[in-house]
Amino acid sequence: MRLVVYGTLRKNGPLSWALPRHLGEYEVMEVSGLRLYVLGDVPGAKLGSESDKAVVELWELNLSKAKELALLRMLDRMEGVRYGLYERSYINTPKGKALVYTYCGNVERCLQIRDWEAWQKKSYREKAQMLKGTLEVGISII
Asked: Rounded to two decimals, what is the model's pTM?
């Protein structure tokens, strides 16, 4: 099973515990056809054009069919699939087609980024400057 993760499920993310790292390998890479957005404390992705690029972890998980289904059920719950928050989508990667969870909401007023981990490392001041103009309510840093 190939799985693309781009935010909280990545190696250093708060939900990284959910992926059975001992049952597969991953590679950090830039993929085409995916746009990442800042949705507050979490990222969201939308399918995009070939010119859209995002930094992701591409996982090759070696799971039995039963374990794969169990993992997908758990990820569906974590991603709010039942409630229409995220949905399963597929993108082409350099290693073939892979599953990715994409955000179902409106991203019109959200900041587009390339790499969630790089975003997380920015200072509050840098983030506020980048977010300026994307939010209904202004942000001020004292």
From this structure: 0.89
